[in-house]
Amino acid sequence: MTFHVDDGAVRGFASQGCWVTCRSDLRDPFMYAAPSSSEVQGNSYFNDVINKTDTRKYIPDSRQRDSWWDFGWDDISAQDADVIQALKDGGVFLDQWHRRAARGNPIGVSDDMWVLDYRNGDGGKSAYSTNWDGDVEQPKQMFDPEKTGFAALNFDDVHNGRVPFDSIYYLSDDTMTEFDLNHAWQEGDAIPRRYLRTPEGSWSDIAADAAWSNGEWTVELSRLLDTGNSGDKAFRDRATCDLAFALYTSATGIRSTTSRSRRSLGLANPPTSSPGGSKASSPTGHRSPP
User: Fold this and answer.
1) What Rg, from alpha-carbon coordinates, does the chain have?
2) Higher pLDDT, 283 or 204
3) DSSP label at residue 116
4) pLDDT grade, residue 1 (50/70/90)?
5) Would the pTM of this model clear 0.70, i.e. be above it?
6) Sheet holding 255-266: strands in order across?
7) Which of 121, 152, 179, 278 has an alpha carbon within 20 to 30 A of 42's alpha carbon?
8) How far is residue 38's CA from residue 41's CA, in Å, rounded to a whole number?
9) Among 65, 79, 100, residue whose Cα is nearest residue 219
10) Alpha carbon distance 57, 260 (integer Å)
11) Percentage of the chain exceeding pLDDT 70
């Protein structure tokens, strides 16, 4: 699940929520008009400034066109780097809380990200890394049989949802050891693509507590009202923030959005009437799309 937070700086967000970040040209295989990696590398901003080979969430303000909405992923170049930095410094970005069940739940954390020109991670170190050594073309880590009683999961069990929520299904300092090529591996053995680690810096701002019961998740995310970090939006007394939630099914390969909703949150701020019902008053300087 994700939710975005804004304080009135991002055009269109209060009315459209996280739809302002979702377009047909986001990375393959998610969207039908995604550019190829070679096309992305041919763009000077992606290749020279942010060093990326795919397209991910971005907001309309980051693309340089006269129209607020009629633009594409490539309406940006290396010459716009100073403009993007000025927008970021001015608070024109979305704070993204991205809770991933497999990558953060076992160690009680959520991803902390921000969206402007790209979906960017906050400063510091994430809670996971890729479990693959490209130099020798094998995993870096495996389950430690002395700690867990097994070296791998069974692929059929994973694929068919037979791995219990409260079991050891993840690689972390408490469950893993260095990969042993000479272990007696069997057909169907499966090792997670990611291993978990303690996040550092601003990436560690959000704590996550979740439980799966009777076919439903109960998720609680918590963070300081004001972290002081440049990729986070602060929750301030007597001010309003706009929130947009999205729930997903499946995993990182292909996932579907099952629910999206928008809310406004005011701290010690009495609600005012609006056509859609009760809603907290908007902060001063809120902008709407033309």
Assistant:
1) 21
2) 204
3) S
4) confident
5) yes
6) 119-121, 111-115, 94-98, 2-6, 240-250, 255-266
7) 121
8) 5
9) 100
10) 16
11) 88
